[in-house]
Specification:
With 119 residues, the chain is an alpha/beta fold. It has a single domain (2-110), classed as STAS domain (Transcription Regulator spoIIAA, 2-Layer Sandwich), CATH 3.30.750.24. It is built from four helices and five strands, in the order ββαβαβαβα. The protein has a five-stranded mixed sheet with strand order 1-2-3-4-5. Strand 2, helix 1 (25-36) and strand 3 form a beta-alpha-beta unit. The protein starts with a strand and ends in a 7-residue tail after the last helix. The model is unreliable at 113-119 (pLDDT under 50).
Length: 119
């Protein structure tokens, strides 16, 4: 599992690569918890590099979304490949979590802030 965080202006973008499952969730959780401490208005998690996600990965992202909401921030997900995104659709999480097709669709990341945009 690869977890890389880069900044797009003031917005952290966490890029995931490989398999997001019970054996790798701790690494992702640690990075998302680290970012929570900074309380960014928006956190973007890019799932395009994932080849697999299981229920543990879903739970990690749901927890990160809940933590962001608690402090007035938001979590934005860039959908992964069809096999990965299908897991979100089956669990109906594509309706609960905020997805943007790609980083270009996000436009000006700095403007995302904590305005509560689309969900």
């Amino acid at each position: 599992m690869g977890v890389r965080t880069r900044m797009a202006g003031e917005v952290p973008v966490v890029e995931l690569e490989g398999e997001f499952d019970i054996s790798t969730a701790h690494e992702v959780d640690q990075e998302l918890l680290r970012l929570d401490g900074q309380r960014p208005g928006t956190v973007v998690v890019d799932l395009r590099g994932l080849s697999f996600i299981d229920s543990t990965g879903l739970r990690s992202l749901l927890s990160a979304d809940a933590r962001c909401r608690q402090y007035g921030g938001r979590l934005v997900l860039v959908p992964g490949p069809p096999a990965v995104h299908r897991v979100f659709r089956i669990a109906l999480l594509d309706q609960r979590l905020e997805f943007k097709e790609d980083l270009d669709a996000l436009g000006d990341l700095d403007a995302l802030g904590s305005d509560g945009g689309e969900r």
